[in-house]
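Appendix C reproduces, verbatim, an entry submitted by the partner laboratory led by Prof. M.T., so that reviewers can inspect both the input and the predicted structure.
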Amino acid sequence: MRIVSLIPSATEIVCALGAGDQLAGRSHECDFPAGVTALPALTRPRLPLSGGSRAIDQAVNRAFTDGIAVYAVDLDLLARLAPDVIVTQDQCEVCAASLAQVEEAVCAVLPSRPAIVSLKPASLADAYEDVRRVAAALNRDPDPVVAAMQLWIERPAKMPAPPRVVFLEWIDPLMGPGLWTPELIEVTGGLSVLGDKGRHTFSRPPDALAGAAPDILVVAPCGYDIATTLKERDILESLPGWAGIPAVRNRRVAIADGNAYFNRPGPRLADSAEILRDLYLGRPGDGTRYVWLHEVA
């Protein structure tokens, strides 16, 4: 069986199911587990997705207004790879090539009509079900992967009371958590504020963060690693009422690797849950998964 994965979470699911050796191609963003970057990449961004969160947000909004897809699919490479299964997504056109693009590409270059598995998780239950759906297409057993995810995710930290947690998925404009992330915050023992459980997030006014008064602030923008997020530290610290936010006063502002963990609804949601529990308990940052902002020069 030849498999093409067009979204990082799907690549991680395929590998967790023990079918990584059958991957023939990936998206340009698939970078885990080690070794998948050696596979040919079938997608590329059509837009210059750089220059800071405000510039990226504006470029994406212009593309949507003009009816331009954010990503392109390499049709020639897809034809040469001739996959039996394509795993893609129907969740967010900013995250990866859309389902409509993939279906159009298949019709254009693959008369064999491979099976297309499209993922669209809005909750933790959906993330578990997506593992099962991919497993069914690959004739694999999903139970060990799902059981391991549930074991590590659905275990609250032991605290006297749940902390008020704001998780920022974007800095400029300000966006709280959406889809599965508010639920992840709550099953690990926190109280999600400024979030949109089961729905896509949306931009909020700059003073919304101070109004939410979080005990813990987790900054993990979609697609950003720690170093990239820290480049926008000045934007964070210039938000209205920043100095008076409880999380800021008490040195409980964390910068986490959103790209590797929270943004990917696959097996590493278990790692994301562990990060949250560590943050609730005030454990030291390790420099790779998360850092405390006050400890960064």
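The chain has twelve helices and 15 strands. Additional entries are available on request from the coordinating office.
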